[in-house]
Amino acid sequence: MKKPGLIAITIILTSLFFSSPGYGQLQIVITQGVDDPVQIAIVPFEWNGFGLLEEDVAEIVKTNLQNSGEFRAIAEANMLSTPHEEQEVFFRDWRFLGADYLLIGKVVDNGAGGPLQVQYDFFDVLREDNLISEVVSAGRNQLRDVSHAISDKVFEEVTGVRGAFSTKILYVTSQRINADLTYYQLNMSDADGGRSQVLLNSQEPIMSPNWSPDGQKIAYVSFESTRPRIYMQELATGGREMLTEFTGINSSPVFSPDGTKMAMVLSKDGNPDIYVMDLRTRDLRRVTNHFAIDTEPSWTPDGESLIFTSERGGNSRPQIYQVSLDSGWVERLTFQGTYNSKGLMLPDGVNLLMIHRENTSDEYHLAIQNIERGTIRELTSTALDESPSIAPNASMVIYASKARDRGILNAVSIDGRVKFQLPSSQGDVREPSWSPFFD
Amino acid sequence: MQTFKAFKLGLALMMAIALASCASSDTEDMSDSSDMDMESSSSTASSSSATSNAADMGDGLTARERQQRDDALAMTVFYFEFDRSDLSAEARAALVHHANYLKSNPSARYRLEGHADERGTREYNLALGERRAQAVERYLQVQGVSSNQLETISYGEENPVDTRTTEAAYALNRRVEVH
After folding, report:
1. From the CA of A216, how many Å to the nearest CA of chain B?
2. Which of A25, A21, A19 shows the shortest CA–CA distance to A426?
3. In the beta sheet, which residues pair with residue A219?
4. What are the distances in angstroms from CA B131 to CA A33, A34, B113, B159?
5. Is 0.90 surpassed by the pTM of this model?
6. Are the beta carbons of A177 and A430 closer than 8 angstroms?
């Protein structure tokens, strides 16, 4: 008999230090934008320095803003002037083109091997107002970070919502070689799919990647020992620990909002139930105790309850429940549809994101249920949705689906107006997990 | 609710079996001797049939019965209906032979790998795969197989046999594999 226990191991993952691009290079393809996007003119930034820059700051900002679905960039060929500083701007040139906003800037190398200076100005064209004027120092290899940061500020200035372009995503890719051999990878990339790196290579499945709330650690399930085990890994060092190795299912690790606890699913007592581990003491607390399947825990924003999937209602039909960690009180949240699972409460505490199948349908859609009114709104037209993950600014949801027999990632705005895909160059992609903000 | 009753009954049976197998050591001796019978029968050349063993090797099986047993033991993948974990009549018939094999070979171990099709969410499917593997495990235990010889692992929807998005592919993927 195996003894359930906690064995801590530390493995230095070389792939963290020598990051190699994985199979699954992702690139955003917009499938649906808003009807009335904001018109923005982004002038290519001037470069005052030697050699070529690896990154085109203006181009990255333009791609980011257009990929949000909220912006449309004015074609460079139509521009009447190419200002790089405020005194070179003639607002009538931009009003003529129908631009609502204008972004200009330049990258300057002051020599002596010091950092580059990225200077940019962002204007409201109609009000002829300079909204943001900033100079940022950056190494040559940090221009992509600077571009994402500029995108965040512009997005927030225009929409009032903090931009999430500087965040990252985790996702799992698989490459099937033959019936007996599949390569699995746990990957991390920028939110736009850029700069992907492999965190873990395995010939056994990898599941359920999840971020700590400070973005410093991740947790996931790996079958590398030929049995499912929960691991926690520090991103900066690659130091890794096995958190559980019980008989049966060890799955669905989810950090609590304060980062001190981890919800998980264990079937060590015969069938899957929800547990919470104190990450400091490693004490386990059983939260549900039912002979039906209980799985897919997620924390409510206040950290006081867990949302979970259970088929305790009968008929092998999973529904979503909420359990109070204080009182143990269990409440059923979903009643409409024959399949509701993987519930995630949005930050407002009222709207529940879930995977939903209607009574007469065979399609699994991402949907939002208002738990006060009970109304359900389907967000997608893809048919095999799973693994939703909410952006830290709560504007978009990234999720996995299938297209032409291959797993792909999709994203949809919470209001359903914007949709894009992140197809992979190769293999199947699945289980996206959107990072928190890093500051 | 009936499945829950059946589940509780299964649990009770499991406990009874576990107790029984702990209590008696002479049953182990018996299974050891039958183990030897099995080995001698299978290592002896057949004269009555090209594909099965000798007609009378002391195990009381006819050539036809021996063929049935070998066919059953060759069946190592068991399929399930959508969202279900009950065993087909064919699977139960084959598992009786697997149970006999395990009882006759106490050192033999089965790893029962449960799988689900891709519809629905991954972690729920992991639980469904486990339930299917446990259905096979329980059936073997009810036949008298020691729980020490059995291990269940669920892969959920992670290891499909057929990656296509068709009903036929789904049917092939809802399975328990015996390893």
Report:
1. 24
2. A25
3. A210, A232
4. 43, 45, 10, 16
5. no
6. no
